[in-house]
Amino acid sequence: MKFRGSKKRLSLALLLMVTMVAAAGSLQAAEPFRLGVALGLSGTGAPYCKEAVEGLEIAINDINSQGGFLGKHHIQLFIRDTETDPQTAKNAVSHLVEKEKIHTLIGTYSSACALAVKPILQSARVLHIAPISNSEEITKIDPSEYTYSVVPNTYMMSKAVVMGTARLAREKGWSKYVTIASDYAWGRSSQEIQVDLFRQAAPDITLLAAYWPRLGQTRFNSFIVDILAQKPDFVLSSIAGADNAFWLRDARDYRLFKSVENPGGLISVTELITQASSIRRGLYGRCRAPFFAHMDNPAMVRFVADYRAKFDRFPSDWAVLLYDAVHILRQGVEKAGGIDTEDVRKALKAMTVETTRGRFTFRGIDNQLSCSAYFGRVADDPSYPFPVYHDLQVFKAEDIWRSEGEIDAARR
Q: Distance of alpha carbon 49 from its chain centroid, rounded?
């Protein structure tokens, strides 16, 4: 009997071992999550997109070190360069969808590129998370149930700029201005919204002229000479990426901001770091995801520490946004309980997520995340080797996004 009992126990032990090995094999064989990323790694978007990939890398390494999504779906990454060109973006994303069979696309840089690839992803039923390109048209018009925006859109950013600038105009007695914006979807959308909102908020302030440099502009001399001739009190600029560096360089060379204010221009953490020695203190700017605004959030503190340990510098807005995008996707997968695209997109619908910037919710009508926009004054800070924003205004989504009624009306 003892022997038979020992054999029974041995059989049970062997059965248990086989079950464990089978389970481990099953765990190892779990389907990988195929993540596509399309960014402007060349062209005007290159400076921002390089940093975005670094934030992405931190997030993916963190998740894969724990076995992947749900502890078993290892993330396989497929990165493509859109060259900040809509047709190239379409070709790249079509290849990712058809050949690489991606579950989700994160991208892109340039709203024109995002608008170009959105219908491809919708038709293929591939989840699309937009972390940098932020034209409100991406989610407002021709809505796709597969597209989610995790960055403040152009309306949100523009309203924050107008609210911040209108206050300055009242304080300083400004009465006239000009605009300069890159001639593509994001620049057009930002400028038009700002002008319309200014007309409502400060009808006594006159728009003198609007300037439209092409995307990829490297010399702004002629624009600046004409702006100076107009003698405005301030200029509203909507220029990004490499173009923005050239704009700020030429404005500095011509001492434009000595006589004309430039409140609300895009001064992301990238510009604060790379132009630390030359950027004018006291300049008011806008940005989308400044790490220094959220150093009271443990998630941001952890990300900044990990980023600095790997890259020996502080993360830009673009690194923050890509890091958040991956972890928002992770939360959607966890809520869905699997990686099936239909289940994940449904899980994200109206979902509340945790990010380095705080706790936000996707609005049901347009899949826009309720994230904040930022406006502040460039100033030195003893905590950092580059200037940051002082007098920082953090505009909550509820105060700056379009009403659902406006979105409904725009879709009719």
A: 10
In a domain, 252, yes or no: yes
What angle do helix axes 86-98 and 111-124 make, rounded to 10 degrees? Answer: 30
- CA atoms lying within 13 Å on the CB side of residue 265: 32
For residues 61 and 93, membership in a common domain is answered with yes
User: How many domains would you assign to the chain?
Assistant: 2
Domain range enclosing 387: 155-290+374-411
Cα-Cα-Cα-Cα dihedral sign, residues 373, 282, 164, 191: negative
Q: What is the pLDDT of residues 348-397, one digit of tens each?
A: 999 999 999 999 999 999 999 999 999 999 999 999 999 999 999 999 99
Check whether residue 142 and residue 202 sit in a common domain.
no
Q: Are residues 232 and 110 in the same domain?
A: no
Both tokens assigned to 363? 């609005």
- Contact (Cβ atoms closer than 8 angstroms) between residue 44 and residue 56: no
CA 292, distance to chain mean position in Å, is: 16
245 and 350 in a single domain? The answer is no
Q: Is 15 inside any structural domain?
A: no
Give Cβ neighbours of residue 238 (< 8 Å, ≥ 6 apart).
179, 180, 181, 182, 186, 187, 190, 191, 194, 265, 266
Q: Is residue 61 scored above 70 in pLDDT?
A: yes
CA angle (83, 98, 112) in 5-degree steps: 35
> What CATH number does the domain containing 406 carry?
3.40.50.2300
Q: What is the largest CA-CA distance in the chain?
A: 106
Tell whether 281 and 308 lie within a shared domain. Answer: no
Residue whose token pair is 């502040």: 376
- Look up the pTM and report it: 0.90
Has residue 249 been placed in a domain?
yes
- SS3 of residue 137 by DSSP: helix
Nearest to 215 by CA among 108, 69, 68, 112: 112
Sequence-distant (6+) residues with CB within 8 A of 387 are 272, 276, 279, 281, 378, 379, 380, 381
Residues 6+ apart with CB under 8 A from 339: 31, 33, 69, 70, 73, 103, 333
Residue 361 per-residue DSSP state = E
Q: d(Cα 22, Cα 27) in Å, to the nearest integer? A: 8
Q: Do 230 and 322 lie in a common domain?
A: no
Cα-trace Rg, the chain: 24
DSSP H helices, 135-184, are 137-140, 154-172
